[in-house]
Amino acid sequence: MGVPPKTEDFVKEAATSDMFEIASSKLAVERGDDATKAFAQQMVTDHQKTTDELKALVSGGKVKATLPNAMTSDQQSMLDKLNGLQGTTSTSNIIRTRKPPMKTPSISSSAMANPELKAWAASTRPALEHHLEMAKELNK
């Protein structure tokens, strides 16, 4: 199972993942075909919810971590690539073929140190699994 992520690392990864998912999905809402737009809007809604919940845990002092102000350079590069694509088909194909991240492999780890963060991570799993199923359906 490996070593559980440090709270700070997990928060950073979860927060930057949400940032990327929201930004790339908003782009897909603007440029995608109808099926992609529906998927992307669900992604925006769900990831905004998890962002708000994570911010509340940190600002409320239940999780000791610093929230990042920006996504990672790799995520920004992918977003820049998506922004540079022209046309509905190109954007829809990129959004459809990339798999939604499952945050981290240890998201449901019973060894996660912070109980509040552990509970939050467990509560996000069903939505993340649903995103994966939605993405698979788009690719049929």
UniProtKB/TrEMBL annotation:
Task: Note the coiled coil stretches, chain numbering.
Answer: none
Q: What lineage is this protein's organism placed in?
A: Bacteria, Pseudomonadati, Pseudomonadota, Alphaproteobacteria, Hyphomicrobiales
Q: Which PANTHER family match?
A: BLR2558 PROTEIN (PTHR38593:SF1)
Region annotation Disordered: where it falls in the sequence: 85-111
Residue stretches of biased makeup (Polar residues): 85-95
InterPro entries (alphabetical): DUF4142
Q: Which Pfam families is this protein grouped with?
A: DUF4142 (PF13628)
In what residue span(s) does the DUF4142 domain sit?
A: 6-138
Output this protein's name: DUF4142 domain-containing protein
